[in-house]
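Our consortium's second objective concerns turning raw sequence data into structural hypotheses that experimental partners can test. To show how far this objective has progressed, the report includes one record in full. It was chosen at random from the queue rather than selected for favorable results. The single chain below, 193 residues long, was entered without modification.
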Amino acid sequence: MSQPDHITALDLNIPDQQNLPEEFRSYFEKCDQKLGMVPNVLKAYSHSPEQLNVFSRFYNELMFGDSNLSPLEREMIAVVVSSINHCFYCLVAHGAAVREYSQDPVLGELLVMNFRAAELSDRHRGMLTFAEKLTKEPNKIEEPDRENLRAVGFSDKDIWDIANVAGFYNMTNRVAAAVDMQPNPEYHAKNRE
């Protein structure tokens, strides 16, 4: 059995790429060149150019903007948060990114199932433990949690970035679940070897 053949379970009147404003056509072309596809999340948001603009700008800033967190670390957070939330879309898409950045086809699977089963540095274990608690029990984050991150080398700016990445994926996981957003099938085979 395969996954459903839709972008979302909603009828959003998603426009064809050629009917998008020029800036989004160019953005989608760059995605296609770099990834070999346009991620379904972007296609879904394209029904509202204003939302697509905000979503894509915030995503790009969080995941590729200036930060002491590496792209791999940001993707690791995305996978662990999405694992807790059981977000099929993000687990497939960001699991592929973890495999790409780490050059380790097993790491993405370990993070999907249980990050504690992976051999991680103290830095990464601390970061992911914080992201897990922020996802499961945000009201219980206290100064000792931030101190634990400082103890493994994170600055206060880094803690801000960890919190923003974790918070972003908690939001996107919920939207994806609510609308039955499906990952692009191409993600499944990426970076497996």
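The partners drew two points from this record. The longest helix spans residues 156-179. The domain at 71-189 is CATH 1.20.1290.10 (AhpD-like). Both points have been shared with the crystallography group to help prioritize constructs.
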